[in-house]
Amino acid sequence: MRSILPFAVMCVGMFAALLDIQVVASSLQDIGGGLSAAQDEIGWVQTAYLIAEIIVIPLSGWLTRVFSTRWLFTISAAGFTLSSMLCGLAWNIDSMIVFRALQGLLGASMIPTVFTSSFHYFQGQKRVYAAAVIGTIASMAPSLGPVIGGYITDALNWHWLFYINLIPGLLVTVFAALLIDIDKPNLSLLRKADYPGIALMAVGLGTLEYFLEEGSRWNWFDDSTIKYCAWIAFASLSLFILRSLAVKNPVVDFRALLNLNFTIGCILSFVVGIGMFATIYLTPLFLGYVRGFSAWQTGMTIFPTGLASIAGVPVYIMLAKRFDLRWLMMAGLVCFGLGMWSFSYITSEWGWQQLLVPQILRGFPQVFCVAPSVTLGLGSLPPARLKYASGLFNMMRNLGGAVGIALCGAVLNDRTNFHFMVLASNLNATRPQVSGMLQTLSAQFGTTQRALKEIWHMTYAQAQTMAYADAFCAIALAFAVAVCLAPLLRQVTQPTAPQAEH
Fold it and tell me: Helical H runs in 426-447?
């Protein structure tokens, strides 16, 4: 019980931090309307949170050593709660983006500390169960986000998407301070910190995400700002990696990548991040903008993904006792990839019935994709490196999510225009089908102009749908690559628990 209770408190904090990435997904239209935001601005409500998390998560190992696990988690939970309140009070899209970034920035450390703490609290076979719990949270929280968010928005309003965090956040803050006791703070590390490296990492990741998110909107390298951001991101991240390899106490331990299991685990974590976050970004957008679903309808349509994720947990725990984790992970990646491929057959008429099987194929294997990578990737490292390496490992999943959302946004923009031009070029009035449709719609709406406008909307909806299919195909291809990498992982023996630092 002395191990389970503090671990459970930390898992609640991790769940809240991950849930809030996607809790806005099914309510983006409502938030955009309430804040007078354009459609191409709304994505930043999710992306700002993700990129802020990405910047802080790699620092979590160093921050843990400075402040201790107890006080870092407590500060993170308190900051997450306060910034959640500010998000609910946002008055325009700019303030919302700032407060969402602050929410991700302050709450980010709750995620990787749970991963490393599981190795402290549990030994032997219990670590498989702990990894399954973590994998379930990591996969289920983003899946449940749109469902919970849709219900809250319809029952109350979008402001309560953030106010709902206040009471749980306060409870986690209090109990984390009372129960967690793993290591001791070492404030002297503040004097030895690689602050130039921290600055390079923040600038590099921030400009990289801006480049990915805004590139398609401004036609990529035709825009000078996008071009400069690309160069700054490349230069900053290159210098950051070189500096981290050169200094004695780097904030991110890239030397851990010399461990093959850890490197492959990071790559697989990146791909899984793309699949988890990008699909929860794409599906609500399709249901909202193409199908015209409300926030609640969107949430309920996505709900089977969360149920399938929960159903996969006992199956994974049962199989993990009997089979090699590498093959379980490979099977999970195959199933997830098939789910993405089945999404590619999407049409503008798809509703919850047609989306049911693809979402089950996506939700059920999530724990199979996440839990083995924790056990085989982080579990292959010596205890002394776990804290620093855990930050890098978790960053890869969130970076995959941020990159996936940004690239899917670019695919939607570019491919919608492409498909619309192709479809429009075939709408020739000399063709019998087109002239017949025009006559029917003219009679229905009373004027030819209204009929032409309706045909335009129908054509654009089809072009959008085909663009969504292209985005899901791209994600499926990423999982095909991941499946090929999974067999390269090596089975590992259970390491001893990291010793508490005094």
Answer: 432-445
For residue 40, the tally of other CB atoms under 10 A from its CB is 13
Distance separating alpha carbons of residues 22 and 45, to the nearest angstrom: 10
Q: What is the DSSP string of 328-351?
A: HHHHHHHHHHHHHHHHTT--TT--
Q: How many domains does the chain have?
A: 2
Instruction: Check whether residue 288 and residue 394 sit in a common domain.
Output: yes
Same domain, 214 and 126: no
Q: Is 158 helix (H, G, I), strand (E, B) or coil?
A: coil
The pLDDT tens digits of the residues spanning 25-48 come to: 667 777 877 787 766 677 778 778
- Alpha-carbon distance of 301 to 292, in angstroms, equals 13
Q: pTM higher than 0.85 for the full model? A: no
Helix, strand or coil, per DSSP, at residue 20: helix
Neighbours of 446 (CB within 10 A): 10
Q: Tell me, what CATH number does 483's domain have?
A: 1.20.1250.20
Q: Which of 189, 208, 182, 185 is nearest to 251 (CA)?
A: 189
* E-assigned strand segments in 102-142: none
* pLDDT tens per residue across span 366-415: 888 888 877 777 777 776 666 667 767 777 877 787 788 778 877 888 88
C-alpha–C-alpha distance, residues 472 and 477, integer Å: 9
DSSP state of 183: -
Q: How far apart are CA 402 and CA 86, in angstroms?
A: 23
Reported residue count of the chain is 502
Query: What is the rounded radius of gyration, in angstroms, for the C-alpha atoms of the chain?
Result: 23
